[in-house]
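Can you give me the bound-state structure? Components:
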Amino acid sequence: MRHEDLATRLAELAVRFGANVQPGQVVSVSSEPGKETLARAVAEAAYRAGARFVDVTTFDVHVKRARLLHADEDTLDYVPPWYGERVLALSREGAAHIALTGPVEPQLLNDLDPARVGRDNLPSIAEWARVVGERTVNWTAVPCPTAQWALLVFPDLDPAAALDRLWEEVARCCRLDEPDPPAAWAARMGRLRRVAGVLNERRFDALHYEGPGTDLTVGLLPTSEWLFAEFSRVDGLRHMPNIPSEEIFTSPDPARADGVIRSTKPLVRAGTLIRDLEVELRGGRVVRVEASSGGEALRATLETDEGAARLGEVALVDSDSRVGALGTVFYDTLLDENAVSHIALGNGFPFAVGANEHERVNRSAIHIDFMVGGDELTVSGVTAAGERVPILVGGRWRI
Amino acid sequence: MRHEDLATRLAELAVRFGANVQPGQVVSVSSEPGKETLARAVAEAAYRAGARFVDVTTFDVHVKRARLLHADEDTLDYVPPWYGERVLALSREGAAHIALTGPVEPQLLNDLDPARVGRDNLPSIAEWARVVGERTVNWTAVPCPTAQWALLVFPDLDPAAALDRLWEEVARCCRLDEPDPPAAWAARMGRLRRVAGVLNERRFDALHYEGPGTDLTVGLLPTSEWLFAEFSRVDGLRHMPNIPSEEIFTSPDPARADGVIRSTKPLVRAGTLIRDLEVELRGGRVVRVEASSGGEALRATLETDEGAARLGEVALVDSDSRVGALGTVFYDTLLDENAVSHIALGNGFPFAVGANEHERVNRSAIHIDFMVGGDELTVSGVTAAGERVPILVGGRWRI
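Here's the bound-state model for the whole set.
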């Protein structure tokens, strides 16, 4: 299928099923230069679905590079107040939001001073975390293939072939090759609902991760609830926040995490590539970060605020994941986090715990997922009595 | 010079001289897909000049097309409130603003229903007019060459040659080929300041235009003040609102214009090409419009409102204009209006007359510049006593 046709198909899925855009809604789209084809297809699909207005914002990492090179150090954490006010207005408006992920210029900031890079979190805007927590916006994120991203993922192919291959694999991961992609996603969500249901009945006190270079115990809160990508707004409107999504996840106890965890895939954060990451936590807090590249930038990021060095999310992914089955490293969290099990430093999800424990969930301006799973990982549940129950072994559910 | 180098030079001129960006300022940049090279160069120049933050907004006319094709007719004049709030916040902030002009997709809306197109004024935002009037933002507009615009201007060249040629001519018009472009503009402004000063001392009662097919007298208001592109913010910060700018201009008495005027260049308005335009005015009002093409559309436009058929601006351009010397029709007002003397039907400039006469300046939803100048035009000032004083003869100042 031509890229334009795949973009149209992905846009339809994002609008009709992912964000579940309703007639009369304002639809926010976050894009980047180079993502015009999909952004326009999303706008077209949204207007066809009855959108009142489609508001596309475009973040250019080249402009961020110029800032990091030349702006006064003291100004690097400045965010224009209208960025956050727009997000809060979208929330009041009951708008929809569609994010186009995928690194356009994956290595553009690699040569810069990591301490400076760590001070500028844009395009991440703190108000989005609040609005996501309040569930006032029906949103989704979908990957958008671009030329440079394709060359990062498939460096041995020529540019055209790399972009073809990336589109093909993204289409596979998003189940665009199914006759009825929304139905395929509904079926997959049904299977994850069952697993989440069993875990929610068991109410484990902690998770134990074991694998090469990994031996970590993460405490759960008494009301930590296992969720999957079937969300609803406060008013009940269903939406699927990530396409693809293959995970079940919850927010852990930010005060209890001890051990070492080794990332099994590289990760890209705002233009910085982090490879061979190893993180040690004590009493829930990161005490050591090592990486063969990008470690310094990550260490700087973890000083953003009090919650940046604590866990906000734990997520489990089985081997039915289409992302995992491909074996491709995409350098895009949306895809890579759905390949294998992962954990995230930084902001957690108040909605993933009981109302009485909202305040215990980790809060931060950052949220960084990193992958810890794969066929060599074993995740067990630990009961309050100390009993260990295998949950995920060799990519298969054991419960 | 390579396009990237010309973009760097134009960006420096826009930042350091045009907007006159000050250390610590927030700098707003309005751009479109396809203008990334110049937008990034502007961001780089602004951060080098000490900007606190560069906020690039990108308007995509393809998204507007999707809206015009599919959205409910009732919603077409909706503008998200955060668009205007951002502009007012920039004003409170004392920000700088740099607009990148030039049509990216000059004919993308041509096949759509003009009644629907007319209801959506974006990317124009009403709050900008207020902020420009309040003089709280130091701003400029510069032309940004793009591929499709180049093919519109130079249809006989191949795409690469057309873009080369457009960059070359834009560079020439913006005086980028001078060793010190800001100094060249300062010198040019100095000459226009002298002419405007003389005209402001003389306080002519009217202007008389004479040339082939042209014999028109336009009344001036007692406080009509001749202006040129040397503006200042309320706090006195100098900026140059248009680059290039070759004109001196004011707003005339909308009740006094009699005679016939023949346009010396084709004019494009909303996808309609108007050729060989001849307009007759009586008592300040257009009573006859003839053209070899596009006359019907213009006559319809002049029925928009009461002020549409009266004059809002008179502007004089001498033959030192670099735009005029090239003889190219750019289909971009920023360039074309600076080629030769012109007058505009529709909205006038209250700031170009004394406060006591603000209410006398013409008001309209339209503002259509058309070119009346050239080497065969003579413009004279007419005193209250009826004496005629040559101002501009054969493209040369006579005062």
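A couple of observations. Residues 77 and 120 of chain A are 5 Å apart (CA to CA). Chain A touches chain B at residues 26, 33, 36, 39-40, 43-44, 47-48, 50-58, 60, 62-63, 66-67, 69-72, 75, 78, 80-82, 85-86, 89 (CB under 8 Å).
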